[in-house]
Amino acid sequence: MERPKLNHHGSKRIETKRLILRPLSNKDAYDIFININNDKQVLDYFKAPYYENFNASSIDSLVRLSNDPTSYCWGIELKEIKECIGIFLQQARNDYIGSIEIGYAIGSRYWNQGYVSEAVIAVIKYLFNDINYHKITAGHVIENLASKRVLEKCGLVYEGIRKDDFFHNDRYYDIIHYYIINPNHKQKIVIS
């Protein structure tokens, strides 16, 4: 089996029934502030700075990542209210083996409504079908059971635990990792 040839197009717009995943812009700064950087419940599990007051430049690095044709970072816009309720981004990637790790966060007032599952499924389809990644991984701190349910619901399979793999809020966390393999890359087994 040959290594996958990746077809990077960056963070193209992806539309689902209720969401638009699109590159972030500076216009999203206030929505990200309200739904991520000023939401302590979100920041319990997602590593991002807490801001007491709005800072318009707080998403500059995410906007740059969104506009990089070889990187992946989307704003998660809820169609119904035209608000950016969260972000979806690459955490790490290895293009040599065709593997990418994804992460996400949405404002706590939008939790448990299926938005993250909807976004994860859409991004998996895009990364497999359009970009041609071989493997997608994601992880969550052990205490974040909602993220565990999202990943399992979206077809990712338990891979293992990385001990003390995440330092946040003055402590180490164990991270549970999941993966999914591109179904278009079925490996043929040859018995000689």
Write structural notes for this entry.
The chain is of the alpha+beta class and 192 residues long. It has a single domain, classed as 3-Layer(aba) Sandwich (Aminopeptidase). The chain is built from five helices and eight strands, in the order E-E-H-H-H-E-E-E-H-E-H-E-E. The protein has an eight-stranded mixed beta sheet with strand order 1-2-3-4-5-6-8-7, with helices on both faces. Strand 4 and strand 5 form a beta hairpin. It is globular.
Low-confidence segments, ≥5 residues, pLDDT <50? none
Shape: globular
**Any idea of the CATH topology?**
Aminopeptidase
What is the H-and-E element order? EEHHHEEEHEHEE
Mean pLDDT: 94
Helix content: 10-25%
Class inferred from helices and paired strands: alpha+beta
CATH class membership: Alpha Beta
SSE inventory with pairings:
Layout (H helix, E strand, L loop, with lengths): L13 E2 L3 E4 L6 H9 L2 H4 L16 H7 L6 E6 L4 E12 L4 E8 L8 H17 L3 E7 L3 H9 L3 E12 L2 E11 L11
Parallel strand pairs: 5-6
Antiparallel strand pairs: 1-2, 2-3, 3-4, 4-5, 6-8, 7-8
What features would you highlight for this structure?
8 strands, 192 residues, alpha+beta, eight-stranded mixed β-sheet, single chain, Aminopeptidase
In short:
The chain is built from 5 helices and 8 strands, in the order E-E-H-H-H-E-E-E-H-E-H-E-E.
